[in-house]
Amino acid sequence: MAALRLDRLHSRLLEPLDLLIEAGALLFLSGASGSGKSQLLRAIADLDPHTGEVWLGDTPRSRMPPALWRRRVGLLPAETCWWAEEVGAHLPLMEHASQHPLSLGSNTRASPPAGQPIGRVLKHLAAFTRRSRPRQSATGTAHEPEPASATPSQIIDWLARIGFEPDVLGWSIARLSSGERQRLALVRLLAQMPTALLLDEPTANLDPGNGARVESLVTHYRQQQQVAILWVSHDPLQRARLGGRALAIRNARLEPVA
Amino acid sequence: MTLIILSPFDLALAAILVLLLAGVSWRLHLGVERRLLIAAARSTIQLVLVGLILKILFAQTSLPLIALMALVMLAVAGYEVMQRQTRRYRGVWGYGIGTLSMFLSAFTVTLLALTVIIGVEPWYQPQYLIPLLGMLLGNTMSGIAIALDSLTRQAWDARGVIEARLLAGQTWDQAITSVRRDALRSGLIPIINAMATAGLVSLPGMMTGQILAGSPPMEAAKYQLLIMFLIASGTGLGSMAAVWIGSRRLFDERQRLRLDRLAAANQSA
């Protein structure tokens, strides 16, 4: 629960800008391609060199370790990349599992060797949910060394909201379509429990049904966690559906959309 | 068995073979005769010069002169590492990373070998120091060049993945860990292969030289083993230093991936 505030942020292609997004508020950003929308999001997430400061609540970015900042201010890029072979390996699910080698080890040994990922995953999940649940959500203090991750049951709930069964966790990344990757990337991002969200056209490659699912998951998370959201979108209907402020990039500046 | 001294006439006979090869290349339009002859001439001049310089060095055993020679060797090796990079680091780093890593690895390992293992008196006796350092520099040079090239190339290709890992809240060294591991592995594979097949296909160069010069084969084998172990550890040490410094240089103080610190692809490398 914290506002996201840009303070003379000078990203590539844009004039230095001040901007405040209150906790729980939604701000839509549009602009011609190449006008610097993605560059702005990258600058806020601190991926490219630039000048200016960003505040998350009372904490300036420069006072936070970069890794913690990027966890808190979650950027969903237009193109998603994956580093492990299976979907589940990208989620805190597996970190929990590695902390409890007993449950993981016994389950993998007990499960059939191949072809039954569903059973294996469900057994994992049963083991996880039996455990006492970790802290439910990230609180906004910067002193906390490692912010809380989502619980396995939250992740399963989110997966269901965008149309996936839990067995997707055992799927290989190579098998996924680009739309599936895009939807799963949102769950991957939420699983790090960000306090602010930067979404770069999260529904661009999705059919209307899945687009609506993504919209409703983001809305659910926003209402539950009161996160500030900067959403790049070209779809006026989407803006109308979800409400919120809308700005557009014109001549390297942000201007209100009529 | 004593060393049979080669006369200029003997060498001229071998040189005729190279001339013949150049003739064949010209006749078959292979287009390498010019480069072949230049390379042959270069090696003749360079080796004769080195022979002369070493003759002077061996006669004097003067530490400043030997240090100068070692520095020249290091400087040339550093340049060679830089030349072999597809994407060089901009600025002094392009030359500095490879050279520093070679200095750290080849020089310390040579020093260790001279003082602790072989026990030469004085430790800088050029007859031991120069060939040892040369072998170590030459081999760490290849290892470091391959490791660094693999690091920068893969980091360039895996930009999306590295940034995705950063966005997931990983630190810079977690985000580049798999790239770094691959780079290190590719730097070490040549020397591991060389050790694994040593003596099976061909005798290593140094052992061949010692046997031709009249050493007993077992003594030659022992020296070759020593050199191989030194080279392996030196290459490992040097590649690790280069990959560590190089990967750190790919990120700035805010742990952003800074591929702009690499120059555009160099097609000739």
TrEMBL record, chain A:
Top-level lineage group: Bacteria
Entry-linked PROSITE patterns: ABC_TRANSPORTER_1 (PS00211), ABC_TRANSPORTER_2 (PS50893)
Region of interest (Disordered), residue spans: 131-151
InterPro entries per the UniProt record, alphabetical: AAA+_ATPase, ABC_transporter-like_ATP-bd, ABC_transporter-like_CS, P-loop_NTPase
A GO molecular-function descriptor: ATP binding
Keywords recorded for this protein, A-Z: ATP-binding, Nucleotide-binding
Pfam families per the UniProt record, alphabetical: ABC_tran (PF00005)
ABC transporter domain sequence ranges: 4-257
Gene3D superfamilies the record matches: P-loop containing nucleotide triphosphate hydrolases
Name used for this protein in its record: ATP-binding protein
Organism: Thiocapsa imhoffii
Automatic annotation (TrEMBL), chain B:
Subcellular localization, as worded in the UniProt entry: Membrane
Record's GO cellular component terms: plasma membrane
Keyword Transcription regulation: no
Keywords linked to the UniProt accession: Membrane, Transmembrane, Transmembrane helix
Transmembrane segments: 6-24, 63-81, 93-116, 128-148, 188-213, 225-246
UniProt-listed Pfam families: UPF0014 (PF03649)
Membrane topology note: Multi-pass membrane protein
PANTHER family: PROTEIN ALUMINUM SENSITIVE 3 (PTHR30028:SF0), UPF0014 INNER MEMBRANE PROTEIN YBBM-RELATED (PTHR30028)
Family: Belongs to the UPF0014 family.
Protein name, per record: Iron export ABC transporter permease subunit FetB
Protein source organism: Thiocapsa imhoffii
